[in-house]
Amino acid sequence: MAMNKILFFVDIYKWLFNLNRFLAGGKVTIFFFILQCKTQCWTQLQAIYTLFMKIFKESESLNVYLNTQRIIANKVGFVPTMGALHEGHLSLIRRSTQTADITVCSIFVNPLQFNNTEDFRKYPKTLENDIMLLEQSGCDVLFMPGEKEIYPDEASRIPHYELGYAATVLEGKFRPGHFEGVCLVVEKLLNIVNPDFLFLGQKDFQQCIIIERLIQLMNKNTQLIICPIVREESGLAMSSRNLRLSSSERKTAAAIYQHLVWIKEKLTTDNFKDLQKKAISELEEMGFKTDYLELANRNTLELIDVCKKGEEAIILIAVFLNGVRLIDNQLIN
Questions:
Q1: List 89, 160, 178, 259, catalytic entry
Q2: Would residue 89 show up in a list of annotated catalytic residues for this protein?
Q3: What's the pTM value of the predicted model, to 2 decimals?
């Protein structure tokens, strides 16, 4: 039985770690397989220990590990991701390491939050590089569940949330079922990790508002920390989907941020609807297809046409460029 488990892990991970990549970085990683550890406190612990980070595939094993760690490490920070990590994700990891005693990251490409099956199929997967980046950023634990671990049966795929108005506009309007899928996986991950802090990026601002509502519905004592957008030199918001853009398309995509900044600067003197119309026209001339470009109250996401003096507002945009969907936003006041 023990040998079968070892062979299972070898089969899964043999393609994961390229020895040349480790040697090129002057780094040797030592793996310890701890299998079938059977004591009163440790049951069926299956983890791969690396020099800096521990990797789990099963929630039960992760629970056991985190429960033991909480004896000596009081606060747990959590960064949920779908992989294809970039500097934006890593900034969340670093923020967690500064705030919490132990940092957990998850990688799970959630099929239920994709309303477009082609988008799900084409979502970038860079697992080997992701693991290296997480180690370098000081992540303590990586959770990589399979789909059956998160959704063991059909009943576990049924949404049951009253998310309110914020889930019906913008992304909720153009990606029906998206936030229900997001909440399904986040609820399960929060129950597995039970973090003190949850770190999310401002780029997915509407998602942050929805998850804040989810935390309230779950009565979780988890503090949501929204971290600033990390941008490329051109101003393009960092996104895993940027990997699907060619170099010339990345240059073109910088126009999204440029138009957001332009609207923000003009908003004090010009009518938003006029700015909206001009920006959409210019972007579409450049090859973009617009889902939305809206001004909203930052706390409720109620769509507004006028930003009153001192009002906390946000400009949000979602566009397609050659079939790749990109989102961004700019805070006002």
A1: 89
A2: yes
A3: 0.84
